[in-house]
Batch of 3 targets.
Target 1
Amino acid sequence: MSELKRTPLYNAHVAAGATMVDFGGWEMPIQYPTGIVAEHLYTRQFCGIFDVSHMGRLIIEGPDRLKFLQHVLTSNAAALTLNKAQYCIIPNEKGCAVDDAYLYMFDEDSYLLVVNASNTDKDLAWFEPIVKNYDCRIRNITGETISIAVQGPESGKLLAKLAGVEEVTVPARNNLSILDLEGHRTWISRTGYTGEPIGYEIFLKNEDAEWAWNRLIELGAKPAGLGARDTLRMEAMLPLYGDEMGVDEDGAEMPIFALALARFAVSFDEAKGDFIGRAALEKQAAAQTAFREKRGTAADLEILPKRVRPIALMDRGVMRHGMAVYQNGEKIGYITSATMIPYFKTEGEGAEARLLEETGKRAIGIAYIKADVLTNSEVEVDVRGKRLKAVIPLKHVTNNVPPYVIPVIAHN
Amino acid sequence: MNYPKELMYTKDHEWLKEEDGVAVIGISEFAQDALGDVVFVNLPQEGDEVVAGDAFGDVESVKAVSDLLSPVTGTVCAVNEELLDSPELLNSDPYGAWIIKVENVTDKEELMDADAYEAFCAEEG
């Protein structure tokens, strides 16, 4: 595996006994000795830290940077003000995803765009002929910086301790700040890929990598690998490029509005002008709205044949990527991501909700199925030759009331 | 890694112990470590026939699913149903958490003793 890239935290992962795997050309920890289940639960209960330094970090700078971003991203970058971040998708002309990304404005003169590790080269090649037409440039700082996702109910307290303050001054989701943590300059963003209502992604210089990692562990955080990152994002219905975005099992491109969260990632604001894929995306958006309002027609199905939906297995078993999904004997799609995912049983509701000691596990995941399938309808999944009962719930978790992610358990 | 001397092992990382003509079958510590967190097991039923080298069930970890291959041919006479609710016992106590017991054994896979199996695992890394 000598040709694989390594992050500055590679030695720390190996020393901790991590199982290292090839992930998008990077040698990354899939899990530590405690295992994926423990790492998942610890993140939901306390705080997990994830090395996400492999993700592509691109600086967009120059006078035309906003015009360029408005053209190549789905979001309204003009609405982004200093110290804010927004989720966005990089669309092609057909309204399908080249990649998904997060756009950050840490200073007045540039933007930071974070893209998927395995797509970084592809994204740069995609931007290259376009950026030539604008007075701006893209600088790849992936190799000079590191990034750690600090996620879970206690994450804010740990960062506040390092900052020497009562509370980290980035209370709201998608807000940013630059702080000196025990003298180490840290770019902090209240974002994440776990569904945690409290979670941060921090960016540091390479030389501060081990310091940040080890100090967070000293304060009680535990390292979590790509395995737990995957189960956490699945439970929170966050898409992964390659599974819920990109091309489907037949090699067809998946429309961006197959994703429910496209509504928040795509802006048709006038300020955006005629961005890449706009015309196609407007049609997709109308079709998605029609299906959400249960009035989708055959014409809508042409534009948006399938949608990405949560799925929960009711019979005993485990669903996996690629398994076929049926309704009334007809194949309606397939599983894009699924496994057995652990959860804390809970007590109380809303802000009063708390996690109990007792845990459970459930076979849940994400499916790409015919766009007109109704929420709460019953379907069947072909689990290694057996048709097992499953349902299409509204969601797998509730996470709008900090500090805890509350599982929503599906029933027949 | 632990390789109890009183057990025999297969190349597929199952262990086998014979008690009064009954073969007790489980998975080794090496197997559970490679699988990661076991979250589900599919088991046969009492009375089912199993064939040496063929799958008699499967274990699912968070990451993947793996077949359980029978080291013997015979009839299932007991199934460890505790594993249905607590599959994680295969991780925490692989040599205590037997999976099935087989009687009327007529055929056996090639088996290794603990020393040979330890050397085999060292090669597999």
Target 2
Amino acid sequence: MSSSKHLHQNCCEKSVFAKLHQKYAKDLHDFIYYKYGEDYNPKDKVQIAFLKLWENCKTVAPEKAKSFLFSVANNTTLNVIKHKKIVLKHKQTKVLSDKDNQDPQFLLEEKEYMQKYQNALAKLTPEKRVAFLLNRVEGKKHKEIAEMLGISRKAVEKRIYTALEQLRKEIHEI
Amino acid sequence: MNEVKKEELIRKWLDHELSQEELKTFKTLDEFSAYTKLSEKAKAFKAPDFDIDASLKALESKTNRKKQPVFRIISTIAAVLVLGFFVFKTIQNNSGLTSIQTDVALTEQINLPDKSIVSLNSNSTLDYNSADWNNKRELNLNGEALFKVEKGEKFSVSTAYGKVSVLGTVFNIKSRDYTFQVTCFEGSVEVKIDSKSYILKQNDYLYLDNNKVVLEKNMRSIPSWQENLTIIKNKSLDEVIKELQNYYDLEFDSSDIDTSKRFTGSFNNVNINLALNSITLPLGLSYKIEGKTVILGN
């Protein structure tokens, strides 16, 4: 049975460890990035979390590895004091070949919009921001996000919906 | 349309679950254009690409390397028969497990759940469990840190050499492969090494010299590393180089010189030329920096 084989699996085995890395490293990185911004070195947090997993590979079962990794990465980030505003970089608005879009007025408005968007995102709570961006940018379903964050699907829906409403009011209503 | 229905429609849209019919209704909402623009523009905030292979490679090199210092510490300790105090913390509650690591040349300040503050020096690791913090104020330290502890229950720091416990005070611990030092700046601390216990009062300074405990007075009001200075008293050049490597990410080529020479003095932790001058000039040595290597010569 595959389940009995599963029981004997151990994070200390290189192949199991590499598989867990393959499965969770990117999500972990995106989670820290969207939640706290680039100033918190999401790549480093991924390394720290996996190193901790490696050190504790005997006590953490593979099926518990996900919550272990997310907890370590999250706690580690939370406990580092930085009072900076969170920064999520946005790409430059693409200059399209369409002539209308190169109109300076349009470009200026676009720039202003993105500036407002960036500020509004920074104002969201980390919990709402990470759920909203995982959904809108990474295209994750509510169910996937719920599993990733270890919360109910209802809670995820609520976070994303209120984030959207808050952003709309902040940016589109004057 | 009532608010509840509208909210449900939006939630479904957010989860890509609208039917054709519902999509039509969604498009009639006043907020439709705002929502679609927000959704479209959100993509510009995409996280930077994450290179999974590079990440795994970096991890593998660290996990392979990580074993070596542990073995070295264990063998050193076994050699002097003091294995008894080597404390391993087992993790029972994963949810609060926190690990803070600083790289070479970087420092961090950490707020503990009880408002105690830890300043972590370069190239150091601090582990603790924040979930269980109110019951057990326990940390593991490998490296150097200054602790400002809020009054309360026992607060203890485990190191490879021993355990330091206090009730509320300011103290500095330096626990590295090659040295162990505890300095008390306020109140008093207890240092337990092997089965012996030492009480340090304000200005007391304890260190291990060839595995023997030495007690001295310290006249500084804060640890020197907080002023970007490393003070060295009668140490071999080998150990001075190890100290330097906590602050500068450099290799040292000392093949042409005698590294058993002793050094007393101090060096700057943020300016490499200043640091190398203050070490090489008194010893009558010279240095050259080539890329990431410092070549020491006579």
Target 3
Amino acid sequence: MIALVGYMVTVLLLSQRYLAPLLLFLGLVAVLTSSDSGPLTATYASVAGAMLPCSVWLTVTLIGLEDRAHRSIVVISAGSHLRVLLATVATAATGCLLLTAAGLVLPLMLGAHTPGLADLALGIAAQLTCACTGMAIGLVCSRLIFRRPGHALVLALVLLLAVLLGKGVSPVNIMLTRLQSASDSADVLAPTGALLAVTAGVLAAAVAVTQAVTRRKA
Amino acid sequence: MLRCDAVGKRYGAGRWVLRDVSMEVPAGDVLAVAGGNGSGKSTLLRILVGLSRPTTGSVSGRPSRIGYVPDRFTVHDRVTAISYLTHMGRIRGLSASAARARGHHLLERLSLVGGRDAPLRTLSKGNAQKVALAQALLVPPDLLVLDEPWSGLDVSAHGVLAESIDEVAVQGGSVVFTDHREAITETRARGVCTIDDGRVSLRGGRHTGSRPSTAELVLTAPPTDVTPIEVNWSALPGVTGVVQCGEEVVLRVSRERSDAVLLTALRHRWSVVSLTATADGRRSRGDARGTTR
């Protein structure tokens, strides 16, 4: 598994296709949080919102890097479709973790905040919740399921809007509205952690769906 | 032993690419799959290695160590050839240094031109094909599946490819490859499958003598005024069938006895019209057809 992730990271880095989602994320974070001195809960809510489209983009890009022949070779070498798919998710997660680190530190440098431990934990949990949702959307809208990038793009945008605006249904929407109105990170840390667990489940479901569709189509 | 049972394949609701394919690939065997463009060769190979699931039927006895060379090794990667092979070796469970050493060895043997440290995308078709072949051989496979491996390779690499195939077979691995040129499938494989209209039929290739096979011998009176001496053909050892077609006598002889029967015929002043090796009752080639008329 480590070898698979190492290979995918190498391919992603050399392709330089990670740059666009990375720059989008850094740009969004800079615009949304610069010279901001309000409570960190709202700041990290904005950062988490920025994480959502970037994690989708990163996942779709990563899966789109390899064509069918290459993927066949990797699948045969690794021994199973599922192992390669899990390694893809692990690689995307690695990228999202790096973005999370940037999203954690940048608002503190750009604005005037005095972060506590609970604030940082909340920042991580909130971003990872969005990253899990984003990776799930990215998987479902990837080349593994859609041959035509146009259809995949439309579906990705629809799903993104749905999870952002789905009041009371979408974990992302619930979390973001709660964080916007909260003032103390320690109060909202536990419910955010619960939502993170829910979105991790969503990601697992997306992996299962992708695996099932890939096997059926193969 | 790799075995297909009544395998059928269609994509979605499309036409049947393969229908009712049953075949076996014993360990140490080299099997060629012949057929025209779009006849389903690649689909059959993808099913054999487990990339595709058959719509009907099943594949059993698939070993865990498989080497697979796809029909198109399109390379957009900036990864260098040796780095690619090292990664693939590590994915297969080799240590980084062992994978690198093995990769260097294979690329040396295949004489990759264009540099091991050149990005894959800069390699020509033939050289990319060599990298694709090398990754399949990183770990000695129990099943080596090659989709049109000869296309794009230069002559020296042809030799190395044939050697590699033989090595895998000698070590007890099975080899299946495709090609649309009969000359290659017949010389390089021990058995040849032909796909036609989704159905697969098996016939002999190289070493057909090791299989129960017969020769078809067609004899006639010489064009000169010599009258051949009548022989009781069916009494000769190895003769399994005698048919009289006008002037010609068609004999079916077991391959082991065909030389003796031929000698008898020539001694009795018969002229040979043709001698054809057949396997499983089907004609496979006409080596000596008409040469002695």
